[in-house]
Fold this protein.
Amino acid sequence: MNVFNETIAWLTDPTNWSGPNGIPTRLFEHIAISGISLAIAIAIALPIGMYIGHTGRHTTFAVNSANLWRALPSLAVIAIVLPITASIDPELGFKVYPTVIAMVVLAVPPILVNTYAGLAAVDRDVIEAARGQGLSGRQVLGRVELPLAVPVIVTGIRSAAIQVVATATLGAVFGFGGLGRYLVNGIAQYDTGQIMGGVVLVAALVIVTELFIALIQHISTPRGLRITTSVGSAEAAT
């Protein structure tokens, strides 16, 4: 039996779609930890990016710090924080918290940098015109800068989400569930069908995540900016 047939056989086996180790359960675990990690990263990175993009203060320090975070391997982050979190909570501190922290570290840089880039790219003449109409700094941010920066900001969130979904599989190495469990178990059991089945499921979830956030990006982007979104967002993301 070749790899393709083994993968199809594993994915279509009814026993793999039920129980605590079934695909629905593992999929829910994977989505849950990815969603929680992304939400925490947004809560951290978005306000910082908005602040430095709006005020122009501390940009060098913030952006360089974010880029330094990019260089941290997720597996190394998990290994570093695991002894600390495990001593605090022997159960969740070993299986869950290290993975969440590593995914937050992974997701913060693209969100922060894209938020800053999106706000910094807003035409200064537009901002001055808004201020000339009597808008306060907060009103300029909320009514002018943020709506114009939405395409680039959502691109950062989109990039972060894809990275988190793909990389959260590492949590299974340290006992967490999720779709990465199939990769770890498959390698341990020399089960090619399970390994490739896990790969297919992770890839499918990444694609669905990409399409879902792309839809959100399209809906949230002002109609006049949709033509240039793909070009401007790609440049900001790099």
About this structure: The chain is about 80% helix and 0% strand. Confidence is low (pLDDT under 50) at residues 229-238. The two ends are 43 Å apart (CA to CA).
